[in-house]
Amino acid sequence: MKFKRILLKLSGESLMGQKQYGIDDQRLAEYAQQISEIAAMGIEIGIVIGGGNIFRGLSGAGRGFDRVKGDQMGMLATVINSLALHSALESIGVKARVLTAIRMEPIGEFYSKAKAIASLQAGEVVILSGGTGNPYFTTDTGSALRAIEIEADVMLKGTRVDGIYTADPEKDKNATKFDSISYDEIYNRGLKVMDLTATAMCKENDMPIIVFDMDTVGNLKKVMTGEGIGTFVHN
């Protein structure tokens, strides 16, 4: 399994590390280091980060925020995380660029497929922020959309767990892990891997996904060198 171009989806919650809120500097530095390792292997890297460490649109709606406003706040949270990652990468000598789904120059350049692919081919890590630019879509859907658009070979979903299980391993000690699973089986079993929109997009466009534990340093490189960690999702 050799991938030339990937879309890496990072969780905003994971960026909190040991904190209750915001960005943990150590976790951010670890992510940047892991990304730098695979960039050095010549892999073209697109990245989408969630915003849940700062604001979640859906939980905001539950607290009385208008859903559209809440989702827009969530999109801005992903931009804050993207700028932090951009800064962390540049500080260790990795060329990176932030593209935003909504116009907000000079914070980031406005996203287009052509611009993203040109940057990838020039050896830059491209951080795709602002979700899809629309409310009612999660960053999972944003990353599925961007993975398909930039013609990535695979979408990597970095999470806190080391793959997909029959049940939540944090709650059920008898949960067993899948080495590989089809989109249909995820749907039929009602497994919470990504939201349905994102899963359907990946299935329809034949975009394979690898779900793995990004919080263990070194795992990203292991995925790239085909060490068979995580769970492979396919048609």
What's this entry about, in short?
It contains nine helices and eleven strands. It is α/β, with parallel strands linked by helices. A nine-stranded mixed beta sheet has the order 4-3-5-2-1-6-10-11-9, with helices on both faces.
Offer a few descriptive terms.
Carbamate kinase; 235 residues; alpha/beta; two-stranded antiparallel ribbon; globular; nine-stranded mixed β-sheet
Please provide a written account of the structure.
This protein is of the alpha/beta class and 235 residues long. The protein starts with a strand and ends with a strand. It is 39% helix and 20% strand. The chain has helices at 12-15, 25-39, 57-62, 67-91, 113-121, 139-149, 183-189, 196-204, 219-224, and strands at 5-10, 44-49, 96-100, 109-110, 125-129, 154-159, 164-165, 177-178, 180-182, 209-213, 231-234. The longest helix has 25 residues, at 67-91. α2 (25-39) packs across α4 and α6 runs parallel beside α8. It has a single domain (5-9, 14-234), classed as 3-Layer(aba) Sandwich (Carbamate kinase). The strands form 2 sheets. The chain has a 9-stranded mixed β-sheet with strand order 4-3-5-2-1-6-10-11-9, sandwiched between helices. The chain has a two-stranded antiparallel ribbon with strand order 7-8.
What's the structural blueprint in terms of helices and strands?
Layout: E1 5-10, H1 12-15, H2 25-39, E2 44-49, H3 57-62, H4 67-91, E3 96-100, E4 109-110, H5 113-121, E5 125-129, H6 139-149, E6 154-159, E7 164-165, E8 177-178, E9 180-182, H7 183-189, H8 196-204, E10 209-213, H9 219-224, E11 231-234
Parallel strand pairs: 1-2, 1-6, 2-5, 3-4, 3-5, 6-10, 9-11
Antiparallel strand pairs: 7-8, 10-11
Helix pairs in contact: 2-4, 6-8
